[in-house]
């Protein structure tokens, strides 16, 4: 039988909260020691903090009290009750209830004031008995069980960076709480490890005193939690290390002879994946995570399409529809993910769980109403209540699970000791099946003919309620054709069960936590799996190899990375992905220059052979580790116009390559060691219009990468193992931030950036603005002439210079315009040389270019006015390397480069991905801001309202400052104009049927362009 996953609701809480008291506190945590007995008083319930939204729902003025999650059937407390008072003692938070029990003995009767929905009632309650852990209790003195760490040092927030992140040793951090019984139980394991591993520093982190660290590393409700740090980066994380072997396996990753390589999301940044599905007839894949978010990926392009966020959500079995609770958790939005349309319904519950049918025509919600009664309610999109199924108050809410069948014809509801099946045609109960306890996972088989309850004796239950043995292992996904069923192996890998599966017998390994969900489709090449490690991964079923992993970080950032190490990401997404080789951990951003390749990611995900494009894998690159960098001489404060800055670069085994020095984010010095290409290739004789994505890629497959000295740079000599250098820098008034980074000898891996700061007390110079605008419509090769480029350059420079008068005195605005015949390569470079003499550090420089652009042999080129038809780079093309040199010559620390270029060979996802890669690396290399938009010839010739489309968006932003300034700062800045122009271009181009999404990259500090008036 084949299984289709509904996802497993295993989250501890709907949101990661800063303090552990906000999540469930176990019975053990409520049970405090009595005054002298070997037993202690307990309420015998599980509680958590009262959510703000629930307090409002039941009419509490403040979120005070202790919310009852589950209760013994022997008492009068029910799930959903809020304990407000015990006798005359007010309960403001769960910890108060723990304190109250200290003053009572088992069997004592207390009066408890509770809020049950809108009602406020008082009940008499008899306290339960709980055993006391062995220990000395002074007669007559109330006590609290505490966790004494013995020889293990406790580190609080103020010392965390110094003791953990900056430690010369690997650090094992033990996250605990004084009220946590398991923390005390597992402490001997940590104490034993501290004796066995003297080279590892073991510290304790009290979560009640270090909420900021808890938030930062995503320590949830499972305590104790252990995180291994090395070199300032987190290596791995274990919750509830119940055996010494867990610690041994963790610390094995610190051994110098361990050459294992892992790529993983930064700890605490991702969310458990509960459900994943390919959406039919689309390139989209939807995943629901433990935070309630539904993340939609374009799995063919390797990009995040959109994210829907809610505290509670449900995803249809086919992934096409989502149900999202509103902020108050009383309303539900029904989302058509492909069409991006929404409908809303208003329930009468405080919504705890949701499910939605495959066609989005029925929503099931679970929660309590304002009388405190829990039920599963069935709604249609017209906001009509179809059926309400009461849930007995003795059933813990966390044990309630429900799911629609893949064909939408059936609905399964699991409560404590019972499974009930319904027909969705008339919502009549089809079968009631007794079972032992509660289901941990509930899912239909993919043919909709049976329900699977993995891990239970019942196994499979058909629609008539007949039981049969289930598959061996926890099956999380299946396919109707009986070729595929996935079973979790229990060791963070999975296997395929079906006899007809191509990959049967293979072990699919790569996840760092259990597999909870999966997806497969006849229309998709790959198999998908979702895990508690926060990743969705695609797999080659026949080979058992990972194709790529998708990670969303909950803050809008994301990354998609192939097994070879090539990746696409949001602006800061790569900051949250790490690579471990042995005992060293690197950030993927250290591989940016070589491995940021959206084009290769897209090609790989589409099933293309990327062998010829992959000149290096991350495993190969990491064999040559980057050097270490540090500053040796930097003043704290100076009034001098120039200062001497000294730094050191030390090889760590991979040699020393290019060294880059930045001031306030802008590249001011490098030794010109760039990756370049062979000067001869088959494309030299091709026409510009022939350079489509196929030609570009064929050329890249055959090119020879070589190292060469960049024009104007100093001669590169072998650097040995140590570099000590000093440079003289021109200061600017105020804070000066100096950053240093260096590459390994092959220039493939970048070091962690070293940063130093000093203050210059010199008087600031009056600011000046320099704009160089280039526009080329007329080429020597008339077959590639454009229509609006020259006008774009003139319009842009005129409009921006006028707006800039709100900041700069008119005499301090300096304009240079080169169009058509004036804009040959020699003239453009001569204009740069002329400006280089005049422009100072504190000035601003903007370069605008509207012309043809092309991608050739892994570089970006501006096609200048001297182009006569031959792809002779030295005579008529300005390469990205030469653009770097242009930026270095201009001393201004505030620089913006704008490229509104037409790609003659057309723009598809491959070209746009490569364009993104080249522009992003260019911006990072120079440490400045780039706007870049590449359109087809047809789009360029059509234009939009008298200008090129992207320039039109820029001009609209300059005209409508208030629309650009969304933060109401009173300023239009480089970053805000970039965002506005990107959104406007994308919107207009989609309406025109020629999608064009500009690449906006920001490195360095933001700068003001004009004041909004």
General description of the model:
The chain has 1013 residues and is of the alpha+beta class. The chain folds into five domains: 99 residues, Roll (Pdz3 Domain); 113 residues, Glutaredoxin (3-Layer(aba) Sandwich), CATH 3.40.30; 284 residues, 7 Propeller (Methylamine Dehydrogenase, Chain H), CATH 2.130.10; 100 residues, Immunoglobulins (Immunoglobulin-like, Sandwich); 243 residues, Rossmann fold (3-Layer(aba) Sandwich). Helix content is 18%, strand content 35%. It has 20 helices and 66 strands. Strands 57, 58, 59, 60, 61, 62, 63 and 65 form an eight-stranded mixed sheet that branches. Strands 2, 3, 4, 5, 6 and 7 form a six-stranded antiparallel sheet that branches. A hairpin with a 5-residue loop joins strand 24 and strand 25. It is globular. The termini are far apart. The relative contact order is 0.07.
Please give a handful of descriptors for the protein shown:
single chain; 1013 residues; alpha+beta; Pdz3 Domain; Glutaredoxin; Methylamine Dehydrogenase, Chain H; 5 domains; eight-stranded mixed β-sheet; six-stranded antiparallel β-sheet; globular
